[in-house]
Amino acid sequence: MKIIIFGGTPGSGKTSIIKFIIKELKSLKIHYVKFDVLNTDDDLLIKQKFGISTENKISGEACPDHYAAL
Q1: Does the residue 58 lie in any domain?
Q2: Are strands 53-58 and 31-36 parallel, antiparallel or unpaired?
Q3: How many domains does the chain have?
Q4: What is the mean pLDDT of residues 54-58?
Q5: For residue 33, what are the contacts with CB-CB under 8 A and spacing of at least 6?
Q6: Per-residue pLDDT tens for 37-47?
Q7: For 11-53, how does the pLDDT look when each residue is reduced to its tens digit (9 = 90+)?
């Protein structure tokens, strides 16, 4: 299993890059997990657009990167 983590400030283009990569790697089995401090529906939009399994985890006041590591 390979894990790729994208981190960055809001609006920096993480989701755009992820969508491009999913499209390019469509022959692989991909699972998308969205870690965020706010409620988001990015996981559902990606699931609908690409037909892959997704999850959404909300970290609240914790840093999403540290929450994901835990």
Answers
A1: yes
A2: parallel
A3: 1
A4: 87
A5: 43, 54, 55, 56, 57, 68
A6: 777 888 899 99
A7: 889 889 999 999 999 889 999 988 877 778 888 999 999 999 9
User: Which domain covers residue 35, as residue numbers?
Assistant: 29-69
Answer whether residue 47 is part of any domain.
Answer: yes
Is 48 part of any domain?
Answer: yes
Query: What does the block give as tokens for 38?
Result: 């706010």
The pLDDT of residue 10 is 78
In a domain, 45, yes or no: yes
Q: CA 52 to CA 14: how far, in whole Å?
A: 18
The contacts of residue 62 (CB under 8 Å, 6+ apart) are: 37
